[in-house]
Design brief:
235 residues; alpha+beta; three-stranded antiparallel sheet; 6 helices; 26% helix; 24% strand
Length: 235
């Protein structure tokens, strides 16, 4: 009798163990995330989506930080004259409107993007021109890559935002630029441009930009005092 009771108890225990394992397995499967996406925090506590494109990991949003990685503040410059004359790290909000930072991120000059105190979160950096080129090649070349990078629709981009599919998950938005010579804000809604760390020549550095017009993207040299968006790439 004792043997039968023991066997019955053992069977119940085995059944309960199986049920617990099956439930945990289902929970694990339900909690699985896309291996090509994730999130990242900067030193200010801003959260960013991240996305794997080819073999590279990119931020899926423009940088918003106002603090270097070593916990020192990045100076904010609102005035046009001060912006055009500075030769040190600085940031501003698109249109000098802090509310726009939540959507478009912030604009930085080249000195901030390349400052030794590091503007990107630990383990990430501002991309070189070569890293941008790798991204463009993976997306099929400059003539079509822009559309694959841009957020689709006209909620943020001006119409027609032609050929925008955002199939890469990069979610490029048109934060515009701040002119290096006048300090004026230009292109909000129609242009998105991002720094590379690669210096072209003299006072110019290479950037990458897309517009609302078509699906192409181009790179060119621009004055280091220009205010541009920043996307970080994983080390």
């Amino acid at each position: 009798m004792k043997t039968k009771t023991f066997i019955s108890q053992l069977m119940i225990l085995l059944i309960l163990t199986f049920l617990i394992f099956a439930c945990n397995k289902d929970d694990d499967e339900n909690e699985q995330t896309d291996p090509n996406t994730g999130t990242l925090l900067d030193i200010d506590g801003n959260s960013y989506t991240i996305v794997k494109i080819g073999e590279q990991w990119w931020m899926g949003e423009n940088l918003k930080t106002t603090t270097f990685r070593n916990d020192e503040n990045i100076p904010e410059i609102g005035g046009s004259g001060d912006w055009t004359s500075t030769q040190t790290a600085a940031y501003c909000n698109s249109g000098n409107d802090p509310d726009k930072a939540a959507i478009y991120g912030r604009l930085y000059n080249y000195y901030a993007a390349t400052d030794g105190r590091k503007i990107c979160p630990d383990g990430w950096h501002v991309p070189t021109n070569e890293e941008w080129e790798t991204l463009m090649i993976f997306l099929g070349g400059n003539e079509v890559a822009g559309g694959k990078l841009k957020q689709s629709g006209t909620e943020y981009w001006n119409s027609p935002n032609a050929e925008a599919t955002n199939e890469s998950g990069f979610s490029a938005l048109p934060g515009g630029v701040r002119n290096a010579n006048t300090g004026n804000f230009e292109g909000i809604g129609s242009n998105g441009s991002w720094w590379s760390t690669t210096q072209q020549s003299g006072e110019n550095a290479l950037i990458w930009g897309v517009t609302f017009v078509n699906g192409s993207i181009s790179n060119y040299g621009i004055d280091k005092n220009t205010g541009l968006s920043v996307r970080c790439i994983k080390d």
